[in-house]
What we know:
globular, UDP-galactose 4-epimerase, domain 1, Rossmann fold, 10 helices, 2 domains, alpha/beta, 328 residues, three-stranded mixed sheet
Amino acid sequence: MTWLITGGAGYIGAHVAHTMTEAGEAVVVLDDLSSGVAGRLPEGAVLVRGRVDDREALDRVLTGHGVTGVIHLAAKKQVAESVAHPLDYYRENVHGLTVLLDAVVAAGVRSFLFSSSAAVYGVPDTGELIPETAPCVPINPYGETKLAGEWLVRAAGQAHGLTTACLRYFNVAGAERPELTDTGVSNIIPMFFDRITRGEQPRIFGDDYPTPDGTCIRDYIHVADLADAHLAVARRLTERKGGDLTVNIGRGTGVSVRELADVVGEVTGRPVTPVVEPRRPGDAARAVASVGLISEELGWSASRGVREMVASAWEGWCLRHPEALGGA
């Protein structure tokens, strides 16, 4: 198999590219490098600089490299930004996917794996765990574009005989190696690190939720586990002819924001006393994945814990921010 990974020079994409190549799969990466880093790519992966809404470029890549499967990761993914700029999000996440699927069908590619998100669930009211059968009621344009993307992928698969999968990520964290760490500060762990590095205390948004310590509970998944899940699903796609698999990717274990802050303090060696600020609109009290389906279908489960996520992320953070070590 030759896999095209769109957005493969990004934080998640590079981990997937490394995992796939280490497993012996041929990998071609399509990335415009707007947020990706070419130096993250593994030896042997082919980098093509381009966008998923450029049909001519897609045709050249798919046919020129003999692509037989696609892992689509390229997308805009910031919730607040999606609220401020919904047209940009629909243009890139939905229109771009439409152009890509059109090219995939024309090239005769038969396997398509779509990077979705737990944001499709919105603010779920399902009790302890969120199953894949939970209602999908996204509350922001980002979540809407991911749900629309799932609809597009399944419809194209049914109409054109593609074998498809939609992976609903929960909260991704950590790094397999320091140079692959997340370079942004929009996710909670790098947000904590950023505040600590600047000599400030991390922020917690709301401590009056109906949870044991009053803070939100989330399901955190190590990015290396996420990459392993992509490999398992990609190989399942090659075994089947037609059909769709939609699964959550998480650990099925909840960690509160305050518990996470405690782990950050232990790993960094800094006294962490979070500053409590008002709740943010739309934050669910609890969002934890039901992971039984992917276990039943593929025998896959996550193997890395939260402390490993924080420690590996801190190592990568310090590589890029050596000043962070000065206060330890």
